[in-house]
Each structure stands twice: as C-alpha cells, then as structure tokens.
Specification:
The relative contact order is 0.15. 34% of the residues lie in helices and 23% in strands. The chain is built from ten helices and 13 strands. Strands 3-4-5-6-9-8-7-10-11-13-12 form an eleven-stranded mixed sheet, with helices on both faces. A two-stranded antiparallel ribbon has the order 1-2. It starts with 5 loop residues before the first strand and ends in an 8-residue tail after the last strand. It has one domain: Rossmann fold (3-Layer(aba) Sandwich).
Length: 305
C-alpha cells in the first residue's frame, strides 16, 4: 500500500480546498473537476496542497525547535503513552475498517502510534519540511501538506480526529468545525492544549500560543463547534509545582533549561512523568501543565453566537 492510496479500506475521497468540487485522481496528481485546480504528489512523499503556506500563530522557528527536541525532551514519551492509552479506553472499536486523521501532525511522531491502532491514517501538516521527516518514519500514513482548516478531503471519513497542541495556535471556530466535518457521525476528537493561564510566560509567547486553557473554557468551546466531551485529564500533574515555580520566577536561564533540559533534569523528570502515567493514566487528574480531552462529534454543528 502506498502512502497516497488507501484509507478506511478504500480510496480517499478528495474535495477541492478552493471550490469544494470533486478532485479526480490522475498519475501523481489530483485535479478538480470544477475549477481545474491541480494538487501534485511531492517527491518527498506527501500531497502538496499549500506550497509556501505558514500557519499563523506557529512560527517556523517553533517548528524547528520541536523537531530538534521531540526525541529527547522529558515531556514527550510519557505524553505519547498517555494519549495511546486514552484512545484504547475511549475510542470505540467498530467491526468495520477504522480511519484516523491528525491535524497538525508535525514530523509524524504520533502518526506512528495511530498506525498501530487504526487500519488507515492521514497526517495533515502545513510545513512540507516536517512532512518530509514524517515520510521517513515507520508510519504508513497518507501525508497532506495543507491548512488544517481547509483540508482537501470529503466529509465524514474518519473515526478519530487528533489535534495535539494545535488548537491554542489557531482560530478555534474554523478549526473545530473542520474537525467535525471530517469526522464520522459519533466520531471522536482527541485534543491536547496547554493548561492553566497561571502558567502563562514568555515561553508561550515564543511558541505562538493564543492562550492557555481552563477545562470549563475548553468544554464550552468544543460544544459550540460540534463536540461533546466524554473524558478529560491533565498531564504533568506531579511536576506541576515545579513548572509553576519555573514560570513564576522565570529567567532566561530557566527558560533555556525548560526548552533544552540537560540530562540531569531530563532523565529524572522523564521518570516522574512515566510514573504518573503508570499510576494515574486512567484517572481524571485535576491539574497539570497540559489538558487532554476526548470528545464525541455532535451530529448537528451549532454555531457560536
């Protein structure tokens, strides 16, 4: 199976991101039957739908930083394990083929988890450089370089939509309604966002965050644009006091250590995060530096006032 070929046991149904017309598959490209838009398959193994596009609120410097640290920062491994366990518990297994799409997939770290749990997976990312790295990984996901609010796929194709630390960078209405459009009826949404406004610091500004979320605010926002929360928890609860102190008494040295921790910090903090997931991964932890939610698609999307 090639990356661009199959999803949910059949070919993807493509939709033009400009006019919503049907995209017809040709050799190495897609062509809109209505407006004649052409989308080409890049030699780096992804569909290039938005060449040169850079998402607002997520600077390229941030993309490069995450690419550098995601394999060695203490924050990532236990979080990945927690997310996988939440999918096992809260995303129903159907008897038919299952598909998942990740919006803002970056270099594809979580796509590898999804590929082990779903029969077919799609990754959407604005930066082609990140998708080129994702294409070199173990995932068999179909990769699409696109604005996550106008994905060139037809509606209702996915059992799961994942958006991990993306919502805080984008305009929520267009993003969450697009996620609801892509999901099947009663499909699930897996969302993680930075938690607690009290943790706001220059690191959030450098990352391009709009905000940090409280649970009631996220629940209301999801409900306004098509989603009902079925489970929530926080991550890095055990390290929360350390993070809070670091943010309250932030200095340039503290910020450097948080962005690129030494082994003397990364190893014990990583063990603490792993212990937290082992002991409390099935619970609803009331605090932490990240908030994670599993939500169910509401059949009729409601517009916010």
């Amino acid at each position: 199976m090639t990356r661009e070929s199959l999803v949910c046991g059949r070919r993807l149904v493509w939709r033009c991101d400009r006019c919503t017309g049907r995209l017809r598959k040709e050799a190495g490209r897609l062509r809109c039957e209505t407006c004649e838009r052409v989308i080409c398959f890049d030699p780096a193994n992804y569909w290039a739908c938005a060449e040169g596009f850079e998402p607002p609120g997520f600077p390229d410097s941030r993309r490069r930083h995450l690419t550098e640290i995601e394999n060695r920062h203490f924050w990532f491994p236990a979080r990945r394990r927690l997310l996988a366990s939440l999918l096992e518990r809260h995303v129903p297994r159907s008897s038919t083929s299952r598909g998942a799409i990740e919006l803002g997939c970056g270099t594809g770290d979580f796509l590898q988890v999804l590929s082990g749990m779903f029969e077919s997976v799609v990754g959407v990312e604005a930066y082609g450089q990140s998708l080129a790295v994702a294409a070199e990984g173990d995932s068999t996901a179909v990769l699409i370089q696109s604005d996550a609010t106008t994905v060139p796929l037809d509606s209702g194709q996915f059992d799961l939509v994942a958006a991990l630390d993306v919502l805080e960078h984008v305009e929520p209405r267009s993003f969450l309604e697009e996620a609801a459009r892509l999901a099947k009826p009663a499909g699930r949404l897996l969302v993680s966002v930075p938690a607690f406004p009290s943790l706001w610091s220059p690191l959030d500004e450098a990352a391009g965050h709009r905000c940090r979320y409280r649970l009631p605010d996220l629940v209301r926002q999801l409900a306004a644009y098509g989603w009902r929360v079925v489970h929530h928890t926080h991550y890095q609860a055990l390290l929360f006091p350390v993070v809070w102190l670091a943010r309250r008494f932030s200095t340039s040295r503290v910020r450097r250590l948080e962005r690129r921790p030494s082994d003397a910090i990364a190893i014990p903090f990583g063990m603490i995060n792993q212990l937290e997931v082992s002991l409390f991964g099935g619970l609803r932890l009331p605090w932490g530096s990240s908030l994670i939610v599993v939500a169910e698609r509401i059949p009729t999307i409601r517009s916010a006032a």
